[in-house]
Amino acid sequence: MCWLCGRPVESRLQWHHPVPKAKKGRVTVPVHPICHRTIHANFTNAQLARIGDDPARLKENETVAKFVAWIADKPPDFHAPTR
Fold it and tell me: Quick one: 70 exposed, middle or buried, by C-beta within 10 A (0-12, 13-18, 19+)?
């Protein structure tokens, strides 16, 4: 299961540090590449360190919430360019 969107993960998988390694984060969670890019496109490492390991806090961001709603019905290995 993807940590951000909750969809199953098939062949495309990346590991995300909810608290960035640069901020002493050690734990990793599985995410789709498109979800991983969305996280880093919307938050700095400092913001991610303050948010911690709660994906619900990321979804409080309007852009991320819209992304998660949009991706919800896509297949597990769905890929599209992100901004």
Answer: exposed
Distance CA 70, CA 72 (A): 6
Biggest distance spanned by C-alpha atoms of the chain: 34
When pLDDT is cut at 50, 70 and 90, the band that residue 63 belongs to is: very high
Residues 6+ apart with CB under 8 A from 39: 4, 16, 31, 48, 58, 64
End-to-end CA distance of the chain: 24
Q: Amino acid identity, residue 16? A: H
Q: What percent of the chain has pLDDT over 90?
A: 82
Q: Which residues contact 69 (CB under 8 A, 6 or more apart)?
A: none
